[in-house]
Design goal:
about 150 residues, alpha+beta, 6 helices, about 50% helix, about 20% strand, elongated
């Protein structure tokens, strides 16, 4: 939840301060995040995560091959296809966006060049909630690598 995420960020600050650990926190709010979601990638991630094809097909029926119409100054536009993105406000949107972000989060977690602060023997490199991503790094080299990973993905 957002409360857990906020509490984790707060705890990293407090524990790092108490232990006199240097570090950096990078918070990213992805611009037009839900609009940029690539459905081919989402499908691949669902398959990789072991979702049954029946569930994947059910989700795709809700999100693929859809059209929209806009009301502008009292007039309806012609229908147009929605080619990419995740509908904001849809109950599945948060989950679908998290699945879309999974390759990025995995790449950051698996990078040996990104060193997070150690808090009570645990390391937290990255946290995410909806379209907000928070990264924790121990040194300048980790910050550079964090952004290098983002550029690659």
């Amino acid at each position: 939840t957002i409360i857990e995420c906020t509490n984790n960020i707060r705890d990293v600050f407090y524990y790092s301060n108490d232990a006199n650990q240097n570090g950096a926190v990078v918070n990213l709010d992805w611009e037009k995040a839900f609009d940029r979601a690539n459905w081919d990638l989402v499908i691949k991630m669902l398959q990789k995560m072991g979702f049954p094809s029946s569930i994947i097909n059910w989700i795709m029926n809700l999100y693929k091959n859809i059209q929209s119409i806009c009301l502008i100054n009292g007039y309806l536009t012609n229908p147009f296809n929605i080619e990419r993105g995740i509908r904001q406000g849809c109950p599945l949107s948060m989950i679908m966006y998290v699945i879309f972000q999974e390759p990025l989060y995995n790449a950051i977690e698996n990078s040996t060049k990104i060193l997070p602060p150690v808090i009570k023997g645990k390391q937290i490199k990255i946290l995410g909630y909806a379209d907000d991503t928070t990264g924790f790094m121990k040194d300048d080299g980790s910050i550079v690598e964090f952004f290098n990973v983002i550029k690659k993905i």
